[in-house]
């Protein structure tokens, strides 16, 4: 089958690898002039690394393998600890943090030369019983038997196929960065939760650290001219390592990413056109589910294209297999934490410490059940 993929991000390149391995002819249409290697680091849970392994992506030596996730109060008191090595042994795949650019490079390196066509932004499409035709803004035309919209949260394919509106802002934003580590975080991800917001940091390999601060966000508010000053005021008095991280940063290190959320549609496409990744279910980065759910989409779509005889029948099967898990992941990412409103009262130092009585073994087991609920792979 001739498959067109819109978007050369993580999900689009992963889809291309999986589809080519399954025997399909693939062309990836990317609006940028080259691979977009910027951005921070990606946390890949056990399902994400397993699916990448299935796609032939060797992650050994790239980024940082994680052994534990430690949840702490704003004062630094440990609340919960999840043993990620136990989960790696249980599921047969590890948890790893990888710079986005490194993962993009790995995914692209396994594609035949010429698979990705740059400067090809989708402007229009027409789908019928005999195939799909796509036009770009520069007037180029591509034809295929099937179209995959992997063109991100502002997907043009979604707009053309579903006519759906933009993803909604949630009222939260992450100020984050990937910078030289001011200390060695080892193989532990630290996340701290308080009434002012939340903070997280983890090693990303090669002496780098991924860090983030989640704070309230209003689209009508004036832009922050000095975000580091704002973060230092807001998180003043927080326990280690917040102060060390903030002290290590310079102007320009912190980028803001407002959280968004799509309404997950019942049907992820129409006819011979389907959506995957952020184009189908953009969600907040809380719990790091976005990329992992996109990889779940890829694995399911490749399987559906091989199992459903009629390409026009793929949308229904694919949508029914993926919608529940993606919607649940989106809900977990949206409602797990609060940075404003009455729910922040539950994140006081006292109440957080009161919840810190769960033995690590039980906490790990519960987290493993959540990961398994959100995955078809593990």
Automatic annotation (TrEMBL):
Q: Where is the FAD-binding domain?
A: 2-326
GO MF annotations, alphabetized: FAD binding; monooxygenase activity
Q: Which UniProt keywords apply?
A: Monooxygenase, Oxidoreductase
Asked if Oxidoreductase is a keyword of the record, the answer is yes
Q: Which InterPro entries match?
A: FAD-bd, FAD-dep_Monooxygenase_BioMet, FAD/NAD-bd_sf
Check the record and name the PANTHER family matching this protein: MONOOXYGENASE, PUTATIVE (AFU_ORTHOLOGUE AFUA_6G14510)-RELATED
Q: What is this protein called?
A: FAD-dependent monooxygenase
Record organism: Streptosporangium roseum (strain ATCC 12428 / DSM 43021 / JCM 3005 / KCTC 9067 / NCIMB 10171 / NRRL 2505 / NI 9100)
């Amino acid at each position: 089958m001739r498959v067109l993929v819109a978007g050369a991000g993580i999900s689009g390149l992963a889809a291309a690898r999986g589809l080519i391995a399954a025997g399909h002819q693939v062309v990836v249409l990317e609006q940028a002039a080259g691979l977009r290697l910027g951005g921070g680091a990606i946390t890949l849970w056990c399902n994400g690394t397993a699916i990448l392994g299935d796609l032939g992506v060797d992650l050994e030596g790239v980024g940082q393998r994680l052994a534990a996730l430690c949840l702490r109060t704003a004062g630094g008191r440990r609340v919960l600890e999840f043993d990620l090595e136990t989960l790696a042994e249980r599921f047969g795949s590890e948890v790893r943090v990888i710079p986005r650019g490194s993962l993009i490079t790995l995914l692209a390196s396994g594609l035949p030369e010429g698979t990705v066509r740059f400067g090809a932004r989708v402007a229009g499409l027409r789908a019928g019983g005999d195939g799909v035709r796509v036009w770009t803004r520069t007037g180029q035309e591509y034809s295929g038997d099937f179209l995959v919209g992997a063109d991100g949260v502002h997907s043009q394919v979604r707009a053309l196929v579903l006519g759906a509106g933009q993803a909604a802002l949630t009222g939260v934003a992450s100020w984050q960065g990937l910078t030289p580590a001011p200390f060695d975080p080892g193989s532990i991800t630290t996340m701290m939760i308080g009434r002012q917001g939340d903070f997280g940091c983890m090693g990303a390999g090669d002496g780098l650290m991924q860090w983030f601060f989640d704070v309230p966000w209003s689209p009508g508010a004036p832009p922050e001219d000095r975000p580091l000053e704002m973060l230092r005021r807001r998180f003043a008095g927080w326990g280690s390592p917040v102060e060390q991280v903030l002290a290590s940063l310079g102007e320009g290190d912190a980028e803001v990413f407002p959280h968004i959320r799509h309404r997950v549609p019942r049907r992820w496409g129409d006819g011979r056109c389907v959506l995957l990744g952020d184009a189908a279910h953009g969600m907040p980065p809380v719990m790091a589910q976005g990329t992992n759910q996109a990889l779940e989409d890829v694995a399911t779509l490749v399987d559906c294209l091989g199992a459903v005889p009629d390409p026009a029948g793929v949308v229904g099967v694919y949508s029914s297999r993926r919608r529940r898990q993606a919607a649940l992941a989106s809900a977990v990412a949206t409602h797990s934490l609060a940075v404003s409103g009455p729910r922040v009262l539950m994140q006081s130092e006292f109440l957080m410490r009161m919840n810190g009585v769960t033995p690590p073994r039980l906490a790990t087991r519960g987290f493993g059940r959540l990961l398994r609920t959100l995955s078809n792979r593990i």
